[in-house]
Specification:
With 161 residues, this protein is α+β, with helices and mostly antiparallel strands. The chain has one domain. Helices cover 39% and strands 19% of the residues. It has helices at residues 2-60, 90-93, and strands spanning 96-97, 100-109, 115-124, 135-139, 145-147. It has a five-stranded antiparallel β-sheet with strand order 1-2-3-4-5. β1 and β2 (100-109) form a beta hairpin.
Length: 161
């Protein structure tokens, strides 16, 4: 009986160890998935801004003068106006979302003073998630560029693959 009990407890301990290993692997995988989601969110936001700029330009004949023109009126739904296009979230239109600062800047104007080119940079706030991450750049070409250096991305940086 003692031998049976010893074998049984040994098997039970082995099962507990294996279950613990699977638990650790599962938690680690969940953390990796969460990290990837946090890393891809700003890329999605930059694509959203670039797309919103194209839609805005097709409606109003120019790109917006400021990022806030792509968002909703404060606390309201889409108004469809030049000042509040309702094309991106309020947070993104305010230039802050998911630990990133989004800076929009018109770069060219035509003779009628309409914006014909722009740039957007997404720079991760310091100490948000620990370590350093990638910073992004997009302009009217729609090509998103990135750098892993602790500086804003520029048109000279490699495109996101």
């Amino acid at each position: 009986m003692k031998t049976f009990l010893a074998v049984f407890l040994g098997i039970l301990a082995a099962v507990a160890v294996v279950a613990g290993i699977f638990g650790v692997v599962s938690i680690r995988r969940g953390q990796e998935v969460e990290f990837q989601a946090r890393r891809l969110r700003p890329v999605s936001n930059m694509r959203g801004i670039a797309t919103a700029c194209i839609v805005y330009q097709s409606i109003y004949g120019q790109y917006p003068e400021k990022l806030s023109q792509l968002g909703f009126a404060q606390g309201q739904g889409p108004s469809g106006s030049r000042e509040h296009g309702g094309l991106v979230s309020e947070e993104l239109a305010a230039g802050k979302e998911d630990g990133y600062l989004y800076l929009y800047a018109p770069t060219k104007w035509d003779r009628k003073n309409r914006v014909t080119a722009y740039t957007v940079t997404a720079t991760r706030k310091k100490d948000h998630w620990g370590g350093h991450g990638h910073n992004l750049f997009v302009d009217e070409t729609g090509v998103i560029r990135q750098t892993w250096e602790e500086r804003p991305a520029t048109p000279a940086d490699p495109p996101l693959l």
